[in-house]
Amino acid sequence: MKKIAVLTSGGDAPGMNAAIRAIVRTSLNQGINIIGFKNGYEGIIDNGYVTFDRRSVGNIIQKGGSILHTSRSLRFLEKKYRQVAENNLRVLGIDGLIVIGGEGSTKGAIELSKISKTRCIVVPATIDKDMPLVGPTIGFDTAINTALSAIDKIRDTATTSNVTHIVEVMGRNCGWLGIHAGIGAGAEITIIPEVEINISKLSQKIKHQLSKGKKGCIIILAEGGFSKGGASLASALKEKGSLDLRITTLGHMQRGGNPSAVDRVLATELGVRAVLSLKDGFSNMIIAKPLDSLEKIGFDQFLNSEVKIDMYLHNLIENTA
User: Fold this and answer.
1) Torsion sign, CA atoms 28, 30, 34, 39
2) Which helix (H) or strand (E) holds 247?
């Protein structure tokens, strides 16, 4: 493994820069040259790239967005342009490619792998968390915290004015953002694409809450949860009774901002492992950390155990320094 490339693709997610930093520093520490393609898959097609050194990724771990920029490449959907990309990879002598992105970006990597000899690894980064099996994705935690910060402020004005607010969050056709926002904000109702809603029952529930002294209700509407969005939902609810409704669409603010500690650590872990996996000969896979479960710990077990530091995480500091 002499030379690898990295790109960020699709919708941007806070923590992408942290992943780029980890990938670049780990590659150089392993004696591997590394370049970054600009604007996602478009960069491979157009042969647009930058050559990284250690200082190229200094002071970026805390920044949102991506220093490589992203795109949703329509050209890459066509086989002839994927072949152009493969030819460019061959000319540049790229042994491995790391794609930082979500579901669509992963599908792009899968299609490229069908015609390319370049080893390919995906690092999952999407605020939507719309990828099966992979568990946490880079950017999701930050997006949730951004949404909750806004919803908390909306809750203040909702309870003061005794108004029901519909708050739209992102997520495309996946309800993870809506679920976490609903739990974290203590929302009265959460509407997600995966669960069909009954407008009559929803209206009755809101009226019941208000009749019992509730001062303002919060309805979380996940993107794709109701046809035509919040305005359409408000109209449907008003047809079922006189409700005082307001609509707030959080939109792309959920993509921006400094990544949370959770996303910085996850991005670093996944980025380091991606490089080491390529070096060890692995290809055509996603680097993920899917385990997330509750456990029962007995008092005796607790008393007879010591706090242990995760030395793997400690060693990541040296790998990316």
Assistant:
1) negative
2) strand 245-249
Which DSSP string do the residues of 143-155 spell out, in sequence order? Answer: HHHHHHHHHHHHH
The structural domain count of the chain equals 2
Q: What is the DSSP letter of 133?
A: S
Euclidean distance between CA atoms 154 and 145, whole angstroms: 14
If asked whether residues 19 and 115 sit together in one domain, one would say yes
| CATH assignment at residue 311 | 3.40.50.450
Whole-structure pTM value: 0.92
Active-site residue list = 128
CATH number of the domain that residue 224 is part of? 3.40.50.460
Backbone CA torsion sign across 157, 158, 159, 163? positive
> What's the pLDDT at 8?
98
Kindly report the CA angle at 179 between 263 and 253, in degrees rounded to 5?
A: 55
The number of C-alpha atoms within 13 Å of 4 and in the hemisphere containing its C-beta is 29
The dihedral region occupied by 244, where left means phi > 0, alpha psi between -120 and 50, and beta the remainder, is beta
Q: What is the pLDDT of residues 86-133, one digit of tens each?
A: 999 999 999 999 999 999 999 999 999 999 999 999 999 999 999 999
Residue 142 region by backbone torsions, left for phi larger than 0, else alpha for psi between -120 and 50, else beta? alpha
